[in-house]
Amino acid sequence: MCHSLEKKIFFSTKYNEVNLRNGPGVKHLLIYKILKKGYPIKVIEEFDNWKRVVDHKKRTGWISNSQLTNKKFGILITNLVKVKKFPENESKTIGIARINLVFQIIKCKTNWCKIMSDRKKGWIQKNTFWGDKNP
User: Starting from the edge strand earliest in sequence, which strands make up the sheet with 60-64, in order?
Assistant: First the structure.
């Protein structure tokens, strides 16, 4: 029996290679491989030990629960994003991030999230990425 979610909807991949299938189970056709640990995905349905997910490019498929983690990650959907020292536009720019960068989300405020990538931390605006934007 499929059921919709009332709990956490954003997850991320636990490994550097995760299979996306066209149905819930290993006998279903492999339709895509996600080759990035921490890749953020949104759960739209659950069945047994499987989650039906969608990514920021609207690709959908099924992933086994064992391949997912509830760590908060995001992916940039805007290119050349200014990473700020503090969550304000006037703050010093400490880096520039490129589109499709996958990063860990540490915490979020109203319009900003503190992120970490390659052990570097900074703040980016929420409208520059796709992922879990809840504090």
Answer: 30-34, 18-21, 60-64, 50-54, 40-47, 10-13, 68-69
Say which amino acid occupies 48: D
Q: pTM for the full model? A: 0.91
123 burial via Cβ count (<10 Å: 0-12, 13-18, 19+): buried
How far is the first Cα of the chain from the last one, in angstroms, to the nearest whole number?
32
Tell me the three state secondary structure of residue 31.
strand
The C-alpha atoms of residue 14 and residue 34 are separated, in whole angstroms, by 11
Burial class (CB in 10 A: 0-12, 13-18, 19+), 10: buried
Any idea what DSSP says for residue 90? T
Report yes or no: 20 and 39 within 8 Å, Cβ to Cβ.
Answer: no
pLDDT digits (tens, 9 = 90+) for 37-82: 999 999 999 999 999 999 999 999 999 999 999 999 999 999 999 9
